[in-house]
């Protein structure tokens, strides 16, 4: 057998069953009026003061090509839940709506629509699951990475996390998000190929173990990769450093090793001792690279301690955003057929109407037809199912993210988000109508 | 553009750059002796007393088809790091080794090899990244789900988590793992299609909002899906329940709704009140289905409280294994060219030699050529790159998991893992050799 993968020809089924159930009802009830859905994060995780929006490009690509294959329809038929007329209509399903979105790499806060979809109700509904899945993983990753990059104070951060990410799709999409957030390179070769981002890597403990002696392993490795970063902690970190020094004596001017990597133990202390050993052997130019369960907290501690570390390899804690592995994302209907709608569920309410966000010294979430001071954040990326804005380069998103984070000021700065007078009024009005109905 | 996906033709590049770097060195040094690598979990997360092994089938499918496409080689060439001879050799790369593994659905503990790969060194090395990525996501998911299923005490658990999982691959592979662990169904239609697992779903708040009145939404929905579970908390949960009762009066004998879903607020209290309302309207047969940030902890509280909940829709907390979103997995060289190897790095050591695990009243990790009492856990799935054991049905893995967890006894039972005399001796011997070298 071959392994199952999600791809362009089956992704239409990457949806919650209830989306299709609702679609069948809409189909038979003739409900194809224009719906407006907002994708937003209800509350930030305790450990986050901002989010770095990411993942839009994958959503746009999906919307451009979304359709049901014969195989998909035949599977749906086999469930004996759906009517023939409805399934026939799915054969012609295309996304023909508009997409307003905040550009990737932008900082956002709770309750700000990241994406606003304006489309016939069934279309806007079906895409919910995929949009939430893709925006969450990329935004989680970019946000965590931005914190780590900031903690590293200009020293390079390399992504080593693919082995601990959740599955193969995260394994390519997170490195892209990391790059947007300022990470220097990824170890995942496929992510490098697919997105054109720099790839990087050193050597594994198994390489050292494959030789009887560590020094012999170092000797052989530099034959192929003279500018290597050598991993020194397989057996005993400082003995490993001494083997690097020994190699430099053996090779003399041919020694071109650029650094060492520490991957276990008390990194701060070992870095100090390794630095001293290297310096006293005249190897001041060798850099010390640290890995081993790093994140923004441990990197900050290392740097506050004054550990002479020149770069960081960050793995699973960035790869799963371990202190906040999910976001409280929502995708809510805010208008249908010209009528503003909202949800009142306890702690899970939503804001009605089409929106714009204006960013000034603070953010104001407003109605789309209001004009307020500040920079409007939502941009129309797609109109009638056709892209209006060409794919942006990752480098541009990266610059945007860097500049936005710089503007934020301190690492833990929040940012006030207010609601416009128009939005407050619409909310009050919509609430009145609902309460008339439910009381 | 189309969205990038991982698939059979590019997955060879789904590897850390250092794997390829090491492979080039092995190639030029002629190091293609037999290597043995163990994939295991070093320490269990604090919140876990056992793991449910999962994901093997995807690993075997990958190993059966693994090869480098012309496009992959051309990308590697463009990096200007690899020699032409080495890249040419990659064009013929195939996996020709043996794979010993613990069947999916089995319970395991720390330091027990889940997979043991015996293959020429470069082959066994290259596959590290993918194996770790795939086994971790499936094992995390199955383990979390097993805890949730157990907490639900026989009431059905449905997976609603795809929107919060990390990416699309997790979105299909986790539902499979959940099913192995006893989850009744998934909301992800594509996972249903690819793995033949049951799909399930109710309705979203947006459906209710798309109508001006909640009761009207319920009326229309049951036209298509008379046996629906109606979502009652869009505006006010108990008002929603009253609308369900009103609908039952309108429809009389044609009312075939099977339940209601509560998705916000104090579920325990609301379930009690909803039950009372339904019962006093003669709707005793309607089931109450709960969702809203559920996990094993909140389900246990609900049931201990005596909340009359008949089933659980579990989302992101299961989908990201939120209290333990990663495992301390390792893939370590334990033998090369007949020589046992081990790693000594602080808190990150490994056990040398080819292994077997014998499960009796406790588990003993032993050398492969030892014979101890108990059931051997590692089974040879692949020999010389060819599968020896056909693909197992998910239902068989699910039964195995259920029976293993039943045997474990209490929900938080641990299980003693010992090392055999042979393994202890080999470890001491290998340590001596290494210390001679490093001292």
List the helices and strands and how they pair.
The structure is a homodimer of 439-residue chains.
Chain A: H1 17-29, E1 34-41, E2 51-52, H2 56-65, H3 70-78, H4 84-90, E3 98-101, E4 107-108, E5 115-120, H5 121-126, H6 128-151, E6 157-159, H7 167-180, E7 185-186, H8 189-195, H9 205-209, H10 214-224, E8 229-231, H11 237-251, E9 259-262, H12 267-280, E10 287-290, H13 296-305, E11 311-314, H14 316-319, E12 329-336, E13 339-340, E14 355-359, E15 363-367, E16 375-376, E17 379-383, E18 386-387, H15 394-408, E19 417-419, H16 421-438
Parallel strand pairs in A: 6-7, 6-11, 8-9, 9-10, 10-11, 15-19
Antiparallel strand pairs in A: 1-5, 1-12, 2-4, 3-5, 3-17, 12-13, 14-15, 14-16, 17-18
Helix pairs in contact in A: 6-7, 6-13, 7-8, 10-11, 11-12
Note down, in words, how this protein is organized:
- The structure is a homodimer of 439-residue chains.
- The relative contact order of chain A is 0.15.
- The first copy, chain A, has helices at 17-29, 56-65, 70-78, 84-90, 121-126, 128-151, 167-180, 189-195, 205-209, 214-224, 237-251, 267-280, 296-305, 316-319, 394-408, 421-438, and strands at 34-41, 51-52, 98-101, 107-108, 115-120, 157-159, 185-186, 229-231, 259-262, 287-290, 311-314, 329-336, 339-340, 355-359, 363-367, 375-376, 379-383, 386-387, 417-419.
- In chain A, β10 (287-290), α13 and β11 (311-314) form a beta-alpha-beta unit.
- The longest helix of chain A has 24 residues, at 128-151.
- The mean pLDDT of chain A is 95.
- The first copy, chain A, is elongated and about 80 Å long.
- Among the domains of chain A are: 11-141 and 324-349 and 380-416, nicotinate phosphoribosyltransferase; 202-292, TIM Barrel.
- Chain A is built from 16 helices and 19 strands.
- In chain A, the strands form 4 sheets. Chain A has a 7-stranded antiparallel β-sheet with strand order 13-12-1-5-3-17-18. In chain A, strands 7-6-11-10-9-8 form a 6-stranded parallel β-sheet.
- Helices cover 41% and strands 17% of the residues of chain A.
- Chain A is an alpha/beta fold and 439 residues long.
- The N and C termini of chain A lie far apart (58 Å).
């Amino acid at each position: 057998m071959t392994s199952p993968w999600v791809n362009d020809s089956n992704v239409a089924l990457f949806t919650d069953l209830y989306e299709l159930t609702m679609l069948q009802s809409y189909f038979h009830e003739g409900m194809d009026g224009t719906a407006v859905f907002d994708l937003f994060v209800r509350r930030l995780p305790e450990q986050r003061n901002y989010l770095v929006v990411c993942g839009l490009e994958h959503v746009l690509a999906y919307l451009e090509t979304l359709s049901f294959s014969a195989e998909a329809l035949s599977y749906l038929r086999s469930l004996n839940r759906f009517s023939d007329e409805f399934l026939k209509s799915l054969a012609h399903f295309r996304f023909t709506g508009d997409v307003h979105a905040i550009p990737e790499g932008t900082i956002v806060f709770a309750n700000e629509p990241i994406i606003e979809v304006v489309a016939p109700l069934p279309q806007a509904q079906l895409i919910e699951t995929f949009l939430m899945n893709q925006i969450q993983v990329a935004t989680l990753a970019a946000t965590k990475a931005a914190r780590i990059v900031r903690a590293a104070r200009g020293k390079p951060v390399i992504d080593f996390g693919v082995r601990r990410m959740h599955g193969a799709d995260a394994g390519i999409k997170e490195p892209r998000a990391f790059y947007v957030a300022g990470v220097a390179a990824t170890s995942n070769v496929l992510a490098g190929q697919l997105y054109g981002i720099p790839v990087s890597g050193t050597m594994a403990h198994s390489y050292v173990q494959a030789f009887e002696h560590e020094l012999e392993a170092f000797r052989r490795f530099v034959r192929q990769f003279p500018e290597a970063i050598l991993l020194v902690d397989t057996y005993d970190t400082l003995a490993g450093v001494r083997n690097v020094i020994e190699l430099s004596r053996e090779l003399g001017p041919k020694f071109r090793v650029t650094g060492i990597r520490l991957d276990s133990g008390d990194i701060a202390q070992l870095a100090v001792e390794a630095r001293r050993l290297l310096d006293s052997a005249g190897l001041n130019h060798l850099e010390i690279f640290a890995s081993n369960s790093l994140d923004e907290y441990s990197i900050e501690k290392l740097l506050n301690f004054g550990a002479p570390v020149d770069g960081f390899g960050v793995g699973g804690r960035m790869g799963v955003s371990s202190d906040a592995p999910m976001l409280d994302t929502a995708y809510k209907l805010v208008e249908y057929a010209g009528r503003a709608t909202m949800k009142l569920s306890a702690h899970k309410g939503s804001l009605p109407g089409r929106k714009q966000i204006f960013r000034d010294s603070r953010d104001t979430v407003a109605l789309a037809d209001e004009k307020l001071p500040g920079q409007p954040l939502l941009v129309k990326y797609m109109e009638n199912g056709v892209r209006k804005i060409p794919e942006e380069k990752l480098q541009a998103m990266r610059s945007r993210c860097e500049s936005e984070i710089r503007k934020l000021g301190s690492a833990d700065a929040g940012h006030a988000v207010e609601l416009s007078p128009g939005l407050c009024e619409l909310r009050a009005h919509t609430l009145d109508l609902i309460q008339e109905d439910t009381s």
